[in-house]
Design brief:
57% helix, 5 helices, alpha+beta
Length: 100
């Protein structure tokens, strides 16, 4: 996670930016879409669906986890992944404010 200067940005500015960075990659966007429709995905299954290596999937999951968009639990040899739709709230509020 990157550092920020509190004198220049609010915590909310930082949180919205982290969410934006997390969802801006096409693979992470697809992971979110897959998790929305499939509640019990694992990193192994995502790797097969997206044709990405497990280390690449793990890297994307860490970015999504930093933004509080996904959570995962390690089981034997794989991660069980869950979507946290509340993780989008700060971004949603920001977009609503900008549209009004």
């Amino acid at each position: 996670m990157r550092a920020f200067k509190p004198n220049n940005y609010t915590l909310e500015d930082f949180e919205v930016t982290v969410i934006g960075e997390a969802i801006c990659h096409p693979a992470r966007k697809r992971i979110i879409q897959l998790l929305k429709t499939n509640k019990n995905l694992t990193n192994t299954r995502l790797s097969k669906i997206l044709n990405l290596s497990k280390p690449a999937i793990t890297k994307h999951l860490l970015k999504l986890s930093d933004a509080n968009i996904v959570s995962y639990k390690y089981t034997i040899h794989e991660f069980k992944i869950r979507l946290n739709t509340n993780g989008f709230n700060k971004m949603e509020q920001f977009i609503i404010e900008m549209k009004s």
